[in-house]
Design a protein that fits this description.
The protein has 120 residues and is an all-beta fold. Helix content is 0%, strand content 59%. The strands form two sheets. Strands 2, 4, 5, 6, 9, 10 and 11 form a seven-stranded mixed sheet that branches. It has a four-stranded antiparallel sheet with strand order 1-3-8-7, with no helix packed on it. It is elongated and about 50 Å long. It starts with a strand and ends with a strand.
């Protein structure tokens, strides 16, 4: 089975920074697109950023210029560097990874979620 382990969440003051990590493990044959989503209480889960295998990044308008998504293919890991954090960024952040197994078709896998709280 595939496991996605997230880390790096926590409590930070407005204007602060956090770096989220999501490492995939298991019998992985290939990883394609990777991304981050977030969900605040009472809100729908929303896309934060994606980074396809080709490396072209995409960001939600609300985080553009403040967040940076990157990946380390050798470590099967995706990162989200979050700077200039705002209270509106408070949410549970989930990584999403498009994975192919050796004998199974490609599908998306989700991390367990990590809490990010931005508050003074």
């Amino acid at each position: 089975q595939v496991q996605l382990v997230e880390s790096g969440g926590g409590l930070v003051q407005p204007g602060g920074s956090l770096r989220l990590s999501c490492a995939a493990s298991g019998s992985i044959f290939r990883i394609d697109a990777m991304g981050w989503y977030r969900q605040a209480p009472g809100k729908q889960r929303e896309l934060v950023a994606t980074i396809p295998s080709g490396g072209r990044t995409n960001y939600a308008d609300s985080v553009k210029g403040r967040f940076t998504i990157s990946r380390d293919n050798a470590q099967n890991t995706v990162y989200l560097q979050m700077n200039s954090l705002k209270p509106e960024d408070t949410a549970v952040y989930y990584c999403n990874v498009d994975i192919s197994l050796a004998f199974s078709p490609r599908r998306a896998y989700w991390g367990q979620g990590t809490q990010v709280t931005v508050s003074s």
